[in-house]
Amino acid sequence: EVQLVESGGGLVQPGGSLKLSCAASGFTLSGSAMHWVRQASGEGLEWVGRIKSKANSYATAYAASVKGRFTISRDDSKNTAYLQMNSLKTEDTAVYYCTRLVGSSFAFDIWGQGTMVTVSS
Amino acid sequence: DIQMTQSPSSLSASVGDRVTITCQASQDISNYLNWYQQKPGKAPKLLIYDASNLETGVPSRFSGSGSGTDFTFTISSLQPEDIAIYYCQQYDNLPLTFGGGTKVEIK
Question: What pLDDT, on the 0 to 100 scale, is given for residue A103?
Fold first, then answer.
């Protein structure tokens, strides 16, 4: 079965750090750009950032709201992408989804189940 | 950033009704638009890509149209399992942006 599984969410204090993982199964992640999208409770979807494939130099890009605090990486040998979150703020509280971008259509065709991150003292 | 404005924000319709959702981009995005369905507690699911192409396995009652700044998403005959929030999303430019969502309910 083709799927993405996120892990690493939890409760963290403001100013703290957390690293999310996104493990792919049923397909090889290496050829795909991987994105992170978040959703605060009762709110819409917000794009967080992306990392391209090795063929595209692992180029990263981020939303202004997280730039300088969040870092996306990947380990293709482990078929896993990561989201390192530093200097967390209460407004970062959300469900975080990893998702695969299909290069041919530039659409997110596979999504993880989401992992909850709560930033609170 | 490209702003995506969806309307209505919510709607209530009867089973079998035709449902239409619009999405307007703040600038020309050609056909670089996707539509997703999100059910409660679940991840979004891709329905339509490149404004009008139906994703494999998605029922044909779903369709999309438009280009430039104005786009339409249609459910030709609403079914009970279509209760969800629908989002448009542009990929013309970073940051990728989503519309605010349209909540579809059964009357």
Answer: 78
Residues of B with CB under 8 A from a CB of A: 32, 34, 36, 38, 43-46, 49-50, 53, 55, 87, 89, 91, 94-101
Task: Indicate the burial class of A60 (C-beta count within 10 angstroms; 0-12, 13-18, 19 or more).
Answer: middle
Q: Which residue, among B38, B46, B56, B85, would best test binding to A if mutated, counting the most A CBs under 10 Å from its CB?
A: B46
Q: Give tens-digit pLDDT for B12-50.
A: 999 999 999 999 999 999 999 999 999 999 999 999 999
CA nearest to B56 within chain A: A109
Rg (CA), chain B: 13
Any CB–CB contact under 8 A between A106 and chain B? yes
CB atoms within 10 A of CB A19: 13
